[in-house]
Backbone:
């Protein structure tokens, strides 16, 4: 029997923001494929006997596929996502036996178009705090039903996915703590050597930019050390962002307005990066972001979101846009300084091509 003949309302804004915050704490969006998640999707497809199965995470404006069988692509718009409806019922499996006659889904493009979607069943992945992050779902091009045993198995696989997410987050947190301890130890040793060599007072430059709250220019050294802690040949991306026409802002509205623009841009960058990323104000109106373990397409998604969010800020003293350049390399092979130069060149290409855009380094 169809369990979703009506569409539950969207979450209240405060609840939705809390859900998105919970999702981002897992640092799963735009990550590389992982066998454990592929296995869950394969089991869901096998148990339910469907040609397609997906593990999706519902982001602010999209649903992103961590693992999929029988479905091409990496994401779709959230506005046409069956899973967006499913996560509104965290305690239930949403089952749509025939989408072509369903009052909510019959006009969705994947139903009316060549995908010919008919059957859908999605079990929400519910985090310990009660937030539904996405679903483990199965799909068919023919109408069908889901047995109680299959529904129970789908729920179990969704719970297993959340357990994997918790283990993954704990592992990432441990790696981060180990890297921070190593950075701290290196700083102490370096400071001791400087004291012994100079035998004079030495002031250590603060690593945080007072205006934006991001790392300051010394963050480039932190980026280099962070990359060294990664497994050899792991991908990482360096992004350089620059405020367009910043001198015009200072000349027109004064330096106080320019400082406010820098503060807001820094705030949006801090909000837009993920838990394992590092962001710094490199100098003036230029910002630097390092994204470990991230492919180029995932990094572009992050930087594009930051670019759009900055332009949409209603409290800017005047319209502001940013341009960005990104470059990808492999840990242990490509030095961060080299990627910074490549990203900086891509940034200037973005400036030449009209600004308010993201360009990737050319091979």
Residues:
């Amino acid at each position: 029997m169809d369990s979703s003949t009506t569409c539950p309302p969207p979450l209240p804004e405060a609840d939705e923001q809390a859900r998105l915050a919970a999702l981002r704490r897992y640092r799963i969006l735009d990550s590389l494929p992982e066998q454990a998640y592929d296995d869950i999707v394969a089991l869901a497809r096998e148990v339910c006997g469907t040609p397609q199965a997906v593990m999706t995470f519902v982001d602010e404006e999209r649903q992103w596929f961590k693992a999929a069988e029988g479905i091409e692509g990496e994401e779709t718009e959230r506005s046409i996502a069956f899973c967006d409806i499913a996560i509104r019922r965290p305690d239930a499996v949403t089952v749509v036996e025939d989408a072509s006659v369903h009052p909510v889904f019959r006009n969705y493009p994947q139903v009316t178009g060549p995908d010919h979607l008919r059957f859908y069943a999605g079990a929400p992945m519910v985090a310990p705090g009660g937030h539904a992050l996405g679903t483990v779902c199965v799909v068919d091009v023919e109408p069908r039903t889901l047995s109680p045993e299959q529904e129970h198995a789908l729920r179990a696989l969704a719970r297993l996915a959340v357990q994997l997410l918790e283990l993954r987050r704990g592992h990432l947190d441990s790696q981060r703590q180990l890297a921070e301890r190593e950075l701290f130890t290196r700083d102490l040793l370096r400071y001791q050597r400087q004291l012994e060599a100079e035998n004079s007072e030495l002031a250590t430059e603060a690593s945080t930019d007072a205006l934006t709250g991001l790392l300051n220019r010394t963050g480039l050294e932190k980026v280099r050390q962070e990359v060294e802690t990664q497994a050899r040949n792991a991908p990482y991306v360096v992004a350089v962002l620059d405020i367009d026409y910043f001198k015009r802002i200072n000349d027109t509205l004064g330096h106080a307005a320019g400082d406010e623009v820098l503060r807001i841009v820094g705030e949006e960058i801090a909000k837009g990066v993920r838990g394992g990323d590092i962001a710094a104000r490199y100098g003036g109106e230029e910002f630097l972001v390092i994204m470990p373990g991230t492919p180029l397409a995932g990094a572009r998604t992050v930087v594009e979101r930051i670019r759009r969010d900055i332009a949409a800020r209603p409290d800017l003293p005047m319209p502001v846009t940013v341009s960005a350049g990104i470059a990808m390399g492999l840990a242990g092979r490509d030095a961060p300084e080299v990627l910074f130069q490549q990203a900086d060149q891509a940034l200037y290409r973005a400036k030449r091509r009209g600004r308010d855009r993201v360009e990737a380094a050319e091979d």
Residues 100 and 107 are 8 Å apart (CA to CA). Residues 13-169 form a domain with the Beta-Lactamase fold (CATH 3.30.450.40). The longest helix spans residues 148-198.
